[in-house]
Amino acid sequence: MEIANHNIMVCNVRGLNSAARGAAMRSLVEDASASVVCLLESKLERVDQRMIHLLLGLKFDAFVALPAQGMAGGIIIAW
Fold first, then answer.
1. What does the alpha-carbon distance between residue 33 and residue 57 come to, in Å, rounded to a whole number?
2. How far is it, in rounded angstroms, from Cα 58 to Cα 64?
3. Could you give the angle at the alpha carbon of 64 between the alpha carbons of 4 and 40, nearest 5°?
């Protein structure tokens, strides 16, 4: 049996509506070599595959997202 080694990253990002925060998040994910990422308080009302690739990198091909309600909340889990 093969045992996989996964790095899981959980962050309260307090909003990802600016390009600078998105770039910083992608850099953090790449530096951590994360394979699973959970982002809390994204404050994003709409999340699609393009957004995941911009924020986290191309290796994240699956995700679930709970959209923000106005300017509060928003959860993204990607793997």
1. 11
2. 16
3. 90
